Amino acid sequence: MEGDRDEEQVSITVEDQEIVAPESESDSESESDEFSSSSKRVDMFAWSNGMNRVEEGNTQHEAVKKFFLSGMKEMGKDTDVVAIHKNSFSTLAGHARFETFQIFSQAVGKKCGGNTNIRYAWYGGSRDDVYDIITHGFSRLRRPAVGQLYGFGIYLSAAEFSIDCALSPAPDENGLRHVMLCRVILGNMETVCRGSQQFHPCSKEYDSGVDDPSAPRRYTIWSAFMNSHILPSYIISFRAPLDPQSLHPMLLKPTSPWMRFGVLLTVLARVLPPHKMTQISKHHSDFCRKKIPRQRLIQKLRQIAGDELLIRVIKQYRTEVRPPVS
Prior knowledge:
By secondary structure, the protein is an alpha+beta fold.
């Protein structure tokens, strides 16, 4: 029964995102710090930077491993988790970052009426990148791949999509990739469309960016907040036998409901006031004349009509046109 209680508690910590206090020095020393020479490169994370290896069989190890593999989707069954390290926040810098995260959590919660909106999210990087972040904090922005610009900031993958960030880092000389499971203060999120050149919130109302508020997959934390709103909690080192780059297009196929823009305009005209339809039609005309890009058109449409209405209209349309099951 006691083991079951421990497992349930770990599950709650992962899913409900409860803030775990820093471990004391004595707690840190109780973790195993002796490793075989074959795993020394993996365990560079445990070299005096406050990271402690979570041993296999530990309920915490199994909960984090399951959480990670579930987000790897089709690749989960072929992914081998080699090591998991937990941030104890026991170093001077680590403890300071933990305290900073708590202070900003309270500040954002107060600004947002009590809803700090703290979630787990994934960050992938090379072994050296991850080590530097744990030791010194975030210090530079990664240049996004072509067509993957969502503003200038730190990109993190939603908890359900660890595969998105697992695809980004190249394996080290041992064939291992590394991702961090982080606590992230999101506060009030604003939609940041692909191709956006934004580098800070568009107003004081917002705290972070998101690709799709109704089905988040990518979060953007602006550089001004990268060391106050992101708290790395775990490092997962893993080996994926399959080449993830070859699966990338298949795994990123859109699954959300959609409808043709002309049909959408017709439906919106039934529910929006004339002055708003005039604005939307003007932006659509500018898009057709190639005066504005598609991302700009979608951004304007969201601002004028609102995401809630658009989602409701699109989902209703897809339900109505879905062919009956024979």
